[in-house]
Amino acid sequence: MNKKELIGEIELMRSMMTRAAAHEPLTSPEIQHMSHRLDQLLNQYERLFQ
Fold this sequence. Notes:
This protein has helices at residues 3-21, 29-49. It is an all-alpha fold. The longest helix is centred in the last third of the chain and has 21 residues, at 29-49.
């Protein structure tokens, strides 16, 4: 995955998480799963491009 694709995935996950958080508690399994996935993407970005 190149840098542009990874940034796109990060932004998409942030957006999805923000929308879901407007309707779900932050402790819901759905939000927790999204948060975990966002963390993985951010860690991948850090390893590859910093």
